[in-house]
Design brief:
Layout: H1 2-17, H2 19-47, E1 59-65, E2 80-81, E3 83-84, H3 86-95, E4 102-113, E5 118-126, H4 130-134, E6 138-141, E7 157-161, H5 162-169, E8 179-182, E9 185-193, E10 206-209, H6 213-216, E11 232-237, H7 244-265, H8 273-277, E12 280-285, H9 292-329, H10 331-339, H11 344-380, H12 386-391, H13 397-422, H14 427-431, H15 441-475, E13 486-491, H16 501-516, E14 521-527, E15 538-539, E16 541-543, E17 555-560, H17 564-567, E18 574-575, E19 589-593, H18 594-601, H19 605-608, E20 612-615, E21 624-630, E22 646-650, E23 667-673, H20 681-691, E24 701-702, H21 703-710, H22 712-746, H23 748-756, H24 761-797, H25 806-832, H26 836-842
Parallel strand pairs: 5-10, 7-9, 17-22, 19-21
Antiparallel strand pairs: 1-2, 1-11, 1-12, 3-11, 4-5, 4-8, 4-11, 6-9, 7-10, 8-9, 13-23, 13-24, 14-23, 15-17, 16-20, 18-21, 19-22, 20-21
Helix pairs in contact: 1-11, 2-9, 2-11, 2-13, 3-7, 9-13, 9-15, 9-22, 11-13, 15-22, 15-24, 15-25, 16-20, 22-25, 23-26, 24-25
Length: about 850
């Protein structure tokens, strides 16, 4: 132990003595480790997140594998569904003899009115046993219990998350046992809990008893008694010693029995009875909850993390080169130590200790730089983007351990070559002042390192160039509607259960009238889902006179107000758009897009006018008449054009015929102005407050900001890739400069003789540049091969990646060559100015 401590003390003195070398090596490591620390924090949050509950490894989540359920939400795609009906949960819970217990959770959103503010928040409906099964304890007060969750006799109580309590209410304990309004209904806050819910892409503010569903969810039927309405996540706790396979077998028996009973009771609602029974359950780990965020960001994060590791590898190669150069320069010192009796193993230990200490210092610097970079990354995310709140978390122990381990391991690994070189010192030659030349065994290793750096840098540069091209193409896509001078915001007047459909309709129309009175407003309209909001609705379509083939595309569906197409400057190809006369009492009408017309009417827009269709498959009422056709627009996402038909219906015809509440009726408003639309946001704020005190204040943004937000993940990925490409280029240039500078110093005598024999400055410069050409050309060749292999993988995981032109790849390679030539300028210039007399005297 004492020997190790002495070696570290000696290494510290050596690093302090060589401050230039130490600063360069530490900064190089810090850059490589810092980038990885920042990205690994996000990587850990998204891909390695474990719910902070009791024994998370015992939690399991139920999955259904079926082709019948087409309306369920799927976190994995394909035929895997994670959402079940509440009656299915009750049957499984009451008859379960395998799992310790089962809970159900329904995610949603709601308006929350407290004494301090009105806010739109994430809300979860949970069964009364939820917190007990999760093993959670209250921070304040109590949690929801089974006695609170009794159908038709539930207690209007709510538990608030600690995160919301701290961020919005300042940890004020007075909230306990205080009354709040959730979607217009009164609730009492009975406790505070430290829990972020099952979904990893949101942080719920409040948890309510499942049986209070009708008080907070607008619905035209009893969802808690509907066996065909899938909306609840089911999680259980696996007993110790019970295998998943055994639990699956027993649960599937229950599941099939329940499906059989439902088919008998609901046979008039189940079209494909054979398909209804072709189903089975499986269990998956529930330790991470529902990984929605992982599904969206997994592949981009893996690509970025791979790029960050390449930057770290380049940094490590640079440090290895620096250590090799330092070892070569210390030949004489090492020889003296050997002459005084130090064993080769002792010298090896001291060199390794120097690398270890260098790695520790680099890791600490990298952690600091990574924390700063992570905070800058979080602040670069727009405030309206959900990722900002989800990802804004402190670095956990996994990130710190990763950084320290990375710094220590890389330094140790890349200290081996210099340490081995130090053991091969020729004592007599070194003591006579002959340090050797760069053409020795250590010279080829340094040259190899530079070629590796060049190759890896080219891969990152080309990757950044391709992503930048992809972003450029996205920003120049025509979405099919005019985005300039448009302010947009989203409200939901129907969230309060005490409002019926006529009241919701009147509130939206009053808001529309008030906005039109504002100076500079050219038009206003609203839609249920809206444009690029992330909200979509899909339905099967049956067109009168058209024979379905059995594999019809689902159609996107949206309800819009009169004047929507004119406000968004979407041209009509045929027919008309909706007018105020298209009401509940008038015939049902629709406007369809080009894809719809191409699929059902061979592209003939005039033929489509007057045609009738209905929603659903099989025998459905085809009472909706097509009155207009528009071009296809990118309403859902900018990345790629949808191949699904789109159908637009009058918003007024979405309300109930009897005037009672008929479900949720949110509205995305679009206000077209003559001037800067953002200047209207303040007026909108006060206008909404006058119209409805309980309406949560929305986020106002321009359509240009909405488009930027919709492609933010691509923008961020491009920015990070560009930063890493730039870092790689700088590190490679530094590595080349170090090798050439050392090579010139080692060959001073040779250069002096060449000049004495008549070589001019051009000859000497070409001598150095020839070495540059050898190093860079080898790296370019390897880099091109690696880059194109990487792009094949990238295109395989990102179907929305645009093909980049060949000149872009050539430009990246040319930029690398230019930087490398610039890095070689100073060593070449120094070589050409060697004084032959001084060189020969020094030798």
């Amino acid at each position: 132990m004492a020997t190790i401590w002495n070696d570290l003390r000696y290494a510290f003195r050596q690093l302090k003595k060589s401050r230039g070398f130490t600063l360069t090596a530490v900064l190089t490591l810090a850059l490589g480790i810092g980038v990885n620390a920042a990205l690994f924090t996000v990587f850990s949050k998204v891909l390695l997140h474990i719910m902070p509950v009791q024994k998370p490894g015992e939690l399991v989540m139920l999955e259904e594998h079926s082709q019948y359920e087409t309306g369920s939400i799927s976190a994995q795609g394909g035929d895997v569904h994670l959402y079940f009906s509440y009656p299915a949960y009750k049957y499984m819970h009451d008859n379960n003899r395998t799992l310790e217990d089962l809970v159900a959770d329904v995610p949603g959103s709601a308006s929350l009115v407290t004494a301090k503010e009105t806010d739109r928040v994430n809300m979860h409906l949970v069964t009364g046993n939820y917190f007990n099964v999760m093993g959670l304890r209250p921070v304040l007060g109590r949690l929801i219990t089974p006695s609170d969750d009794v159908l038709h006799a539930a207690n209007p109580v709510a538990v608030m998350s600690e995160e919301y309590w701290k961020s919005k209410l300042g940890s004020d304990p007075i909230i306990l046992n205080q009354a709040v309004k959730i979607n217009g209904s009164p609730f009492t806050i009975v406790g505070i809990v430290r829990h972020s819910g099952l979904l990893d892409d949101e942080h719920p503010a409040v948890f309510l008893p499942m049986s209070m569903e009708q008080a907070v969810v607008q619905s035209d039927h009893e969802r808690l008694t509907d066996p065909l309405f899938a909306w609840a996540v089911i999680v259980g706790r696996l007993p110790t010693g019970t295998s998943m396979k055994r639990a699956e077998s027993q649960l599937n028996t229950l599941w099939w029995n329940w499906r059989r009973d439902v088919m008998k009771a609901e046979e008039h609602h189940i079209g494909d009875k054979e398909g209804w029974l072709k189903t089975h359950l499986s269990l998956r780990s529930g330790a991470r909850g529902v990984p929605v965020l992982e599904e969206m960001l997994r592949e981009p994060l893996k690509v970025l993390e791979a790029m960050a590791l390449v930057v770290l590898l380049i940094a490590c190669v640079n440090v290895a080169n620096l250590l090799l150069v330092k070892a070569a320069r210390k030949h004489a010192e090492l020889a003296v130590r050997g002459a005084l009796g130090a064993s080769r193993w002792r010298i090896f230990q001291q060199v390794i200790a120097e690398g270890l200490l260098l790695g520790l210092i680099g890791a600490m610097a990298g952690l600091t730089l990574g924390w700063i970079s992570f905070k800058l990354l979080i602040h670069s995310i727009p405030a309206t983007n959900y990722m900002r709140d989800v990802l804004d978390a402190p670095m956990d122990w996994k990130v710190i351990a990763f950084c320290i381990a990375t710094g220590v391991l890389t330094s140790l690994v890349f200290s081996v070559a210099p340490a081995l070189l130090s053991m091969r010192v020729n004592l007599m030659r070194a003591l006579h002042g002959q340090s050797g030349s760069v053409t020795g065994s250590e010279g080829w290793l340094r040259n190899l390192f530079v070629s590796v750096e060049t190759a890896l840098s080219l891969v990152l540069l080309m990757g950044a160039a391709v992503l930048a091209w992809n972003l450029y193409q996205l920003r120049h896509i025509d979405p099919g509607f005019a985005t300039s001078h448009v302010l947009t915001f989203r409200v939901d007047a129907s969230a309060s259960p005490d409002k019926n459909d006529p009241q919701v309709k009147e509130e939206y129309e009053a808001l529309e009238r008030e906005i039109l009175r504002q100076p500079g407003v050219r038009g206003v309209a609203y839609a249920n889902n809206g444009l690029l909001t992330g909200n979509t609705s899909t339905n099967d379509i049956t067109v009168k006179g058209f024979t379905n083939s059995g594999d019809e595309l689902h159609s996107n569906r949206d309800e819009i107000s009169p004047g929507f197409f004119a406000t968004m400057q979407i041209s009509l190809l045929a027919g008309r758009e909706f007018t105020p006369q298209d009401t509940l009492t008038s015939p049902k009408v629709a406007v369809v897009d080009e894809i719809f017309v191409k699929h059902y009417f061979d592209g003939d827009a005039q033929k489509a006018l007057g045609a009738q269709f209905g929603f659903g498959s099989g025998r459905v009422k085809t009472d909706i008449r097509i009155v207009g056709v528009i071009p296809s627009v990118r309403a859902t996402k900018m990345e790629s054009a949808s191949n699904q038909p789109s159908v637009y219906l009058p918003y007024d015809q979405s309300y109930s015929a009897d005037g009672k509440p008929s479900g949720s009726h949110p509205a995305s408003f679009y206000v077209r102005t003559m001037g800067d639309p953002a200047a209207l946001a303040g007026t909108m704020h006060s206008m909404l407050r006058r119209l409805d005190q309980d309406l949560p204040m929305p986020d106002f943004e321009t359509m240009d900001e909405r488009i930027s937000s919709s492609i933010f993940e691509t923008t961020l990925m491009t920015l990070l890739a560009s930063v890493m490409g730039g870092l790689a280029l700088v590190l490679a240039a530094i590595g080349l400069y170090g090798v050439l500078a050392f090579a010139v110093a080692q060959r001073t005598r040779e250069i002096g003789i060449r000049i004495a024999l008549g070589a001019d400055k051009g000859n000497i410069s070409r001598l150095v540049l020839r070495q540059v050409g050898t190093l860079v050309s080898g790296g370019l060749a390897a880099g091109l091969a690696l880059a194109f292999a990487a792009f094949r993988i990238l295109r395989g995981i990102d179907v929305d990646l645009f093909g980049a032109p060949i000149w872009l790849y050539c430009g990246a390679a040319f930029g690398l060559i230019l930087v490398m030539l610039s890095a070689s300028y100073l060593p070449a210039r120094r070589a050409s100015r060697v004084d032959p007399m001084c060189a020969l005297r020094a030798e």
